Amino acid sequence: MEHFAQGLALLSEQDISAVPPRRLGADIQQIRGFINRAEAQCVRRVEVFDREQAYGSSGDTSTTNWLRHHCQLSGFAADKHVKLARQLPELQATQQALESGEIGIEHALEVARATDDMGAAAEAELLSAARTKDPAEVRQAAREIRHRVDAAGMARQAMEQFRKRRLHLYDLPDGMTGVEGALPPEGGAALRLTLESLSGVPPKNDERSPAPSDIGLGSSIETKSCHQHHVEGGVELAVSTWVESVADHLP
Fold this sequence. Notes:
disordered C terminus; four-stranded antiparallel beta sheet; alpha+beta
């Protein structure tokens, strides 16, 4: 670990203002590769730490809690790392790809999540996708594989996602409108496309990022067939039907 710290210290001391942009790009690629390899070594240690229940000596009740309290991770991130650590020993090819820096930690998380659902037999195809695609595309590849091998299960999942869909608008203390919800994949894609089509090309001097610009459309979309009720901290609008402008596109 001492050598690791020394290497990071050397990097922090480097004057990058004089480094050519192309060299910076190469450096970024190398550093990301080192980070992926370091993540793999961290996961290896988390697996043993968890198996030995080493968190007990500090008063924590689980490895997830220990990671939250001692490694600056959110509960969600800590839980993902623990699940990956427990499963990765069964996914030797994925572990080797992560340790070599060939794939990133997010790729490994997607492979682990999918194989936990479909079994280790899907690892090879998912890992092949992980080597050339980003994590979101690996997730989509997992859906396609599951559709091939378990069409009935995919249909049940789609029905469950449809049942759980929701969309809530609520007033924030500063007068802005908050939006919270969950849509099935197809509905989410349709909503994104619809918002993008409504937003059009941003004005030349509009320096906002695409996300705030899209959210700004909320003031121009009619929300009919809604009912309003008071909740602590503001007024929440429970949308009983989809926003009129996109209702025809959502499942």
